[in-house]
Amino acid sequence: MTQTAAVPGNPSPRELFVAFFQCAISGFGGTLPFARRMLVERRKWLTPQEFVETLSLCQSLPGPNIVNMSIVVGGRSAGWLGSLAAFAGLVGAPVLIVTTMGALYSQFGAVPQVRGALLGLGAAASGLLAATALRTAEPLLKGKPWIAVPFMATAFAAVALLHFPLPYVLLALAPISIGVVWWQRRRA
């Protein structure tokens, strides 16, 4: 992926707003699965590999990954106006919905049925996240699994099992992974 590559089809700011708005209102419990489906499978604005690379960049930046993704994709296709449109589409409706839900939860949060419903939504969101992680890893596993799997396993073990802070794990693994890929390319 090149830094200056335009998004295929060069979607307009309006198209970006609508796409990210639809993604946002579909993505209760996590927008990333819906963003991947929209960007890669439906609109084909990114290839699976480009999605992984862009997500990797967005994860290394401060802020929510999907917000960073909307800004990057919007900027590539329609400059700063595209970034603004994609960002507004992504966060506009959720801000209103979350504000309303927060007010309702403060009123009805102690009701046992509400607590049960939220538990079920949490389980569904976890399933979506796991499915997205597997779909996102697919290009890495198809490309060079002997490089990707050790880094995936190390990151998982460090964060999930050993409870190391994610920023420290990234700071440790990023330069090593870059070095390994650089070394592989030099050998080829």
Distance between the termini: 19 Å
Number of strands: 0
Percentage of residues assigned to helices: over 70%
Computed structural class: mainly alpha
Query: Strand percentage, roughly?
Result: under 5%
Please, could you describe this protein's structure?
With 188 residues, the protein is mainly α. It is built from 7 helices and no strands. Helix 5 packs antiparallel against helix 6. The longest helix has 44 residues, at 65-108. The protein is globular and about 60 Å long.
Structural descriptors:
0% strand, mainly alpha, 7 helices, 81% helix, globular, 188 residues
In short:
The protein has helices at about 15-25, 30-40, 50-60, 65-110, 110-145, 145-160, 165-185. The protein has about 190 residues and is mainly alpha-helical. Helix 3 crosses helix 5 (about 110-145) and helix 5 packs antiparallel against helix 6 (about 145-160).
